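note to self: dont lose this again. the chain is below, predicted strucutre after it. 118 aa total, dont forget to put it in the shared folder this time
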Amino acid sequence: MRSEGKFYDDKNFPRGFNRSGVFTISETSVLENYGRSMRALFDGTTQPIDDSEVQFLAEVQGQQEAVSEFGKCWIKYLNHTSHKTRSYTLCVSQRAHTTGSYGEDDDSDSGTDNDLDY
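---
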């Protein structure tokens, strides 16, 4: 695989690949050193010139199982950049209470004092 300079993705990994917590040290090295070549091959802007690049293309296009370090790393990169991540929280929203939800014991007044005995 040829190296065409350092590869950075400031949009998806603004603090760098190594600080993202997604990639290992060796995967970070592969992405930074060969990422430009891998992206160009994946996009089709350059053609493969050796067997490792042909194998890489076959792996990322799903024609064969990813066994090379380049293929595994690029597929992992694509999975983290192309799929939206959903995060779930355990807080209750501040919307109006509806019947049958958490607001069954609703103490809100309806504007009358009919419940009070004086």
